[in-house]
Amino acid sequence: MNTILISIIAIPIIEILLFIKIGENIGAINTILLIIFTAIVGVYFARIEGVKTIKSGFVNIYQNKLPIYEMLSGASIAIAAVLLIIPGFFTDTMGFLLLIPVTRKLFLYPIIKKNKNQTKEDKTIEAEIIEEKKDEL
User: What residue ranges do the domains of the chain occupy?
Assistant: First the structure.
């Protein structure tokens, strides 16, 4: 809960600081145009990566595999698209990092590893055998 509160406060402060610093160097109009450009390019690449993820998920379903990575990847691509639409350079950087497949794998690896450990434990089936004696005539 504390990390959410801190991030709600810290992210806008970081964004404002970056707006000021970048605006000083390249100008206000160029800063605004850069923000609009990153949003458009980011959403375009999010669409491309989303289509690739959906195709990969269907391939896994066709091979009778559970598309865990593809589901998590699709969710992270959606989060990346939202981050890219939000105006700011810090959120754009985080969004682009989620769009790149290599960095997305690095972010999702701990979650997938945790899920694989749980599935190994879940393969044990507990059961009770009850023998009923039948009356023989």
Answer: 10-119
For residues 43 and 80, give the distance between their C-alpha atoms in angstroms, rounded to a whole number: 9
Q: Quickly state the pLDDT bin for 121 (edges 50, 70, 90).
A: low
Q: Which residues contact 53 (CB under 8 A, 6 or more apart)?
A: 70, 73, 74, 77
Distance of CA 9 to the CA centre of its chain: 22
Encoded tokens for 107: 């972010």
Give burial (CB, 10 Å; 0-12/13-18/19+) of 24. Answer: exposed
Supply 4's token pair.
Answer: 């959410």
pTM of the model: 0.74
